[in-house]
UniProtKB/TrEMBL annotation:
CDD domains: PLPDE_III_YBL036c_like. GO terms for molecular function: pyridoxal phosphate binding. Belongs to the pyridoxal phosphate-binding protein YggS/PROSC family. It comes from Friedmanniella luteola. The modification N6-(pyridoxal phosphate)lysine is found at K36. This is Pyridoxal phosphate homeostasis protein. Its cofactor is pyridoxal 5'-phosphate. The keyword Protein biosynthesis does not apply. Residues 13-231 form the Alanine racemase N-terminal domain. Keywords: Pyridoxal phosphate.
Length: 236
């Protein structure tokens, strides 16, 4: 059995190599440890390995874990699964960033709550770059109007864009998804009145993070390569 610490150092070495190949500074790329479905022992190992950003896709599961790890004040939690408006209050109790913003209704619910609490939240606009109907996220052509619609919601700090590439062995098809997100980023940076910095691209997972880095990823979301295959049901 390979330890999480060993796997993490291998993933970091691969990130560094991918950055060098792309003539990028490795400090520009954050490694998010996707801890969904894993229980406290695995999270302890991840923390001990120096991982400080954990990604979770379900609010109740994440809220419980965040509570268990509340004394680790340098640990940040990212929500990478679809967020329902009725779970906004609970999500905001622990989440430092949301990678799946894809509706104005959700933006409004988040902003209202954040304004009440006098704080802000880092958000990523999720884009469906593969045009697969089963995937959530905005169609690329909807994104400009969408971000302009975010203007009233001043508690949302729009950091950038997020995508899941097409699930395929075809590297060209996967790379095309990442290229589409990077192209959108360029357009948004030039769009008058668009709120946010668009300095972040959240893309790349276990099977494709090096390719994502070649296309400009600033946050890669890695689960299985760090922790092995996920258990079928969430571990409590
Ligand atoms: C599960 C998940 C990941 C991590 O996938 P791995 O293949 O385990 O690296 C990344 N992003 C999202 C949105 C996920 O749901």
């Amino acid at each position: 059995m390979t330890s999480v610490a060993e796997r993490a150092s291998r993933v970091r070495a691969r990130i560094d190599a991918a950055c060098r190949a792309a003539r990028r500074d490795p400090a520009e790329v954050r490694l998010m440890a996707v801890t969904k479905t894993h229980g406290p022992p695995v999270l302890e190992e991840a923390y001990a390995a120096g991982l400080r950003l954990f990604g979770e896709n379900r609010v109740p599961e994440a809220a419980e874990k965040a509570e268990q790890f509340a004394d680790r004040t340098d640990l940040a939690w990212a929500l990478i699964g679809h967020l329902q408006t009725n779970k906004v209050a609970r999500a905001l109790r622990f989440a430092a960033e949301l990678h799946t913003l894809d509706s104005l209704r959700l933006a409004e619910a988040l902003d209202r709550r954040l304004q009440e609490e006098g704080r802000s939240l880092d958000v990523f606009v999720q884009v469906n770059t593969s045009a697969e109907p089963a995937k959530t996220g905005l169609a690329p052509e909807e994104v400009e109007a969408f971000v302009l619609g975010l203007r009233p919601f001043s508690a949302l700090r729009v950091r950038g864009l997020m995508t899941l590439a097409v699930f395929s062995d075809d590297q060209d098809a996967v790379g095309a998804c990442f290229a589409r997100l990077a192209e959108l980023q360029r357009r948004l940076r030039q769009l008058d009145g668009a709120p946010g910095s668009y300095d972040e691209l959240s893309m790349g997972m276990s099977g494709d993070f090096e390719l994502a880095i070649a296309h400009g990823a600033t946050t890669v979301r890695v689960g299985q390569t760090l922790f092995g295959a996920r258990p079928a049901a969430p571990v409590r």
